[in-house]
Amino acid sequence: MTTGGGGGGGGAVGGSAVGVQIQQQSRMALPDFLQSVNLKYVKLGYHYLISNLLTLFLVPLILVTLIQVSQTTDLHHLWLHLQYNLLTILTCSGVLVFGLTLYAVTRPRAVYLLDSACFRPADHLKAPFRSFMDHSRLTGDFEESSLDFQRKILERSGLGEETYVPEAMHSIPPQPSMAAARAEAEQVMFGALDNLFQNTSLKPKDIGILIVNCSLFNPTPSLSAMIVNKYKLRGNIRSFNLGGMGCSAGVIAVDLAKDLLQVHRNTYAVVVSTENITQNWYFGNKKSMLIPNCLFRVGCSALLLSNKPADRRRAKYRLVHVVRTHRGADDKAFRCVYQEQDDAGKTGVSLSKDLMAIAGGALKTNITTLGPLVLPISEQLLFFVTLLMKKLFKADVKPYIPDFKLAFDHFCIHAGGRAVIDELEKNLQLRPEHVEASRMTLHRFGNTSSSSIWYELSYIEAKGRVKKGNRVWQIAFGSGFKCNSAVWQALRNIKPSPNGPWEDCIDKYPVEILT
């Protein structure tokens, strides 16, 4: 069980690597990105807001006009007048039809999350710290200094003793074959999908869109084709396979599904997010490439999305916003998490010394764009006025830090590493209960890459904390460098789905994590 390998992929490593860089090597902390805001990203957020003004104001305007007319006009006389004025009738009818048509055409279709399912591996795949270190030593590939480095990372990572690694990594020596990698992919994907289909009573033939994301394992035929073959999905299914996009790829996949559901009416979309560890364990001694071995663990999530209006009554959530940030145009950002070979020809993922600064910049950009879409007007005014005074009038004022707790009830911060969670808790002024789901997911399941935010949401649901109208913020980041956010609104009081990953252990949490 030498494990946990770079399963998160080039991008997936980004999230966890950020955390461990702080913990292990005492490099600079995540930048205080709320203290230095770029005005152009505020403008971008307000641009998104203004783009939806027609939808926001057209219906209320029509209602107000009708109420005003009914209060100030004798409707009987108006009807008698219209009977003898064909031009007026045609004009009014035309305006009404045009307005309603314009509204119907420009209004985006609602996207509902009917349910999500997370895979929970068998107990024999657990990887306690001592077994991890013993197996790593027995492989004979690691120098003593490399073993000591991994031990220190494990101790400070925030992971617990019950995380999982794939079957092939429990062998001595490990067996990272193509067949073993396919077996891992089938186990986690089919396990999550079986739970999803069982909980939603969905027939696989009813799926119209299938999206799978996995960073570092992209065989031929693809992972999406494996699912089509397993469940005998229909021949005209629109299937997509996203590779190399890291820990934030789960949000990217949801965004792609959302766009496709705007085009295809009355359709179900299934999104599968996973990472593959078997062939991505690093067997070298370069410290910047050893970190993923200690953090990444087995995991997978499956979501069922729908744009059918009738599904609203049984859906758990409605998708409100997706905001994506990509810093790949900058060379340093592009190379800060980079898959390559070391001097001995062994493949792994290298982490740049600039990783923390780049991650902070991506996070700052993302939340600055998201703010105008979600923050209450009072928070926006305070933030915007102080920003203008500082940027335009060069006033010596301390920037106002928006209170995102007023916009969101629950937070799902990618469980990439304990230090990242610590820094976001500090910068966003969150309370311990707001980051509890992230910390406990990291402790119980490790870094499961793009699926981690769904294990976190499952934790919050298992605790019975999601009430009707609550808003959930999912935020993840990965190589490229990318930072992506998704905002969901609960349509009812949410009960945990059967066969959830926390079903038999939720009462044990939260646990105290030693520093």
From TrEMBL:
Cellular localisation: Membrane
Substrates-to-products reaction catalysed: a very-long-chain acyl-CoA + malonyl-CoA + H(+) = a very-long-chain 3-oxoacyl-CoA + CO2 + CoA
Residues annotated as catalytic: C247, H326, H410, H414, H443, N447
EC number(s) reported in the record: 2.3.1.-
GO molecular function, one term: fatty acid elongase activity
Keyword vocabulary terms for this entry: Acyltransferase, Membrane, Transferase, Transmembrane, Transmembrane helix
Residues that span the membrane, as ranges: 48-70, 82-105
Beta-ketoacyl-[acyl-carrier-protein] synthase III C-terminal domain ranges (all copies): 409-489
Coiled coil, from the record: none
GO BP: cutin-based cuticle development; fatty acid biosynthetic process; very long-chain fatty acid metabolic process
Residue ranges annotated for the FAE domain, each copy included: 103-392
Pathway(s): Lipid metabolism; fatty acid biosynthesis
Gene3D superfamilies named among the record's database cross-references: 3.40.47.10
SUPFAM superfamilies xref list: Thiolase-like
Domain of life: Eukaryota
PANTHER family in alphabetical order: 3-KETOACYL-COA SYNTHASE
Entry similarity comment: Belongs to the thiolase-like superfamily. Chalcone/stilbene synthases family.
Name of the protein described by the UniProt record: 3-ketoacyl-CoA synthase
Species annotation: Vigna unguiculata
